[in-house]
Each structure stands twice: as structure tokens, then as C-alpha cells.
Known about the structure:
Elements: E1 19-23, H1 32-45, E2 50-54, H2 61-76, E3 84-85, H3 96-117, E4 120-124, H4 131-137, E5 142-148, H5 151-154, E6 158-161, E7 166-170, H6 172-187, E8 193-201, H7 208-225, E9 228-234, H8 238-242, H9 263-279
Parallel strand pairs: 1-4, 1-5, 2-3, 2-4, 5-8, 8-9
Antiparallel strand pairs: 6-7
Helix pairs in contact: 1-2, 3-4
Bound molecules: adenosine-5'-triphosphate and magnesium ion.
The site of magnesium ion has 6 residues, from helix 1.
Amino acid sequence: MSLAHAYDPPPSAAPRQAYVIVVGNQKGGAGKSTVAMHIVVALMRMGRRTGVLDLDVRQRSLTRYIENRNRWIAARSAKLASPQGIDIKESPQRLLDLAEQEEEAGFRLALRRLSETCDFIVIDSPGGDSHLSRIAHACADTLVTPLNDSFVDFDLLGDIDPNCAEIVRPSIYSEMVWDSRKKKALDARTPIDWVVLRNRTSASKIEAKNKQRVGDALKTLSNRIGFRLAPGLSERVIYRELFPQGLTLLDLDADGGEGEMRMTHLAARQELRDLFITLKLPSLEGEPLKF
Ligand SMILES: Nc1ncnc2c1ncn2[C@@H]1O[C@H](COP(=O)(O)OP(=O)(O)OP(=O)(O)O)[C@@H](O)[C@H]1O
Ligand SMILES: [Mg+2]
């Protein structure tokens, strides 16, 4: 496996306020940390100064991913970029109110600090509902929600009758995003661009019909509750395999080496490119992709 290019900051002046991308979804295991890491590496490959906040203070998956990356870089003197990060600690306070206040203060300070040196900040949020996660959602310029590609996880967005694909009502999470949008509009006077991404889509013909139905229901829901749909990411073992090395699909070189880039990797990278294009991030639109 050969490795890709070093971080090369652009000569352009940084925006005064870093652009915040929150990866969120209250369901566990939908691919938040994996997607967050791939967005981080994509931004670094585009030469943007990128910071990371991992709000999953218990599992710390994104933090561990980056630690693995730093170890890989150190062991091989690899010319790979690694993001800036500030640890968000779980409060030792026993009283919930005090714990929440302390964590919120820590989060806001970390966000301000990273904002001084970064163009983009990517925030990985934990599964479940937490005070910190709600605060972070209300700071998002873009919210990316990965969703396991099945009706089992669909109720994250809305209650739906799978037989007729009729939407009964938006979910608690959709309502939480709605509240965050209101807060953001009041505090910062800017909107949240919400992008939902189907993850772990299957190529199997047996599941094609179900995939189609999920897609149709998502389209209906996207109009109703106001999100954009990104092209999905397929189910691929490589995502799990790269975690211990701290690498992403965007770090593998197309011209071979120890682990030559297989066709499936190229297809996976194309899916990530399509996601990145769909995000329409400021200052990046129209710029040729460097991954
Ligand atoms: N497209 C994919 N194909 C195959 N495996 C995937 C894919 N996306 C994520 N995974 C794997 O699924 C597992 C869960 O992913 P991840 O940790 O990113 O989810 P999460 O939403 O952050 O979970 P949590 O809610 O626990 O924080 C990981 O082992 C990851 O490698
Ligand atoms: Mg996670």
C-alpha cells in the first residue's frame, strides 16, 4: 500500500469563522465516525486546515481512529496529514446540570480555539441523545446524517408505514434537527444544510426491491422535513479494515504498491467523491478534487 500526498495548505486567506460540519444520527453504528473521518481526510487532501471534535466521550472512535493514524505516520514517516483535535472530556460532576454546563463550556471553548486555526471543523456526535450533541447540532453549518439502508433504521427520520411508504410523522431526531435549525437561525442567522446519506447499501439483487422502497420513502421525507439526499456508500469490508491503521480509502494510492487499489476501492472512492461534491462546501465548489 503506498500512501498519498502530504498536506499542502492553500495560499488563500482562511475564512474568519471555521465552517462546521456535524456528523449526527441518534442511532448507534450507522457510520458516523467512519464518515466523519473520510470527510476530514477529504478536506485535508483539498488543502484545507481541518480540526476535529469527538463528542463521543465514551467510545472515542474518531479519536482512536486519529491516534491510529498518528501512530502509522510516526512509524513510517508517512507523508500524510493528520487533523488538529482538542479532547472533549466527560465531566466528573455528579449533578447533571453542572455536568452539562461544564461540558458545554469545554465544547464552546474548543470550538473557538479550533476556529482560530482551521478552515473546517468536523464534529462527530455520539449515538443517542445528549446535551452536548444538541448543542453541537445547533452549531452546524452542514449536518451529515448517515443512515443504515433499511426500514429498520428509517424511523430515525420519520415514522413510516413500510407497506404503503406513507409517512405518519417526523421522528424525535427530525424534531431535534428542526429545533437546532431554529436555534441556529436565531443565534447565527444562518441555516443548517442537512444532508442525509444512505450507508452500507447492498449490491445484492435480492435486496434491490427493498432498496428502491427505502429510496422512494426517503425522497418523500426529504421534501417533507427538508434535507438533501446524498448518493449512498456501499457496504464494504475495507472500511473496517482501515480503522486500525488510521487510514481511509482516500489515502490509498491508485498506482498500486503493496496493496494495490482494487476495482472495488476505486468504486468506493468514487462514492466518497460524489458525497463530497453533494456537500457543496463553501470555497470548494468547482475546485478539482484531489482524491
Ligand atoms: N459502508 C460501510 N461498509 C462496511 N462497514 C461499515 C461501513 N460504514 C461503517 N462501517 C463499519 O460499521 C461499524 C460502525 O461504524 P461507525 O463506528 O462509523 O458508526 P457510528 O455511527 O459512529 O457508531 P456509534 O453510534 O457507535 O458511534 C464500524 O465497524 C465501521 O467500520
Ligand atoms: Mg461513532
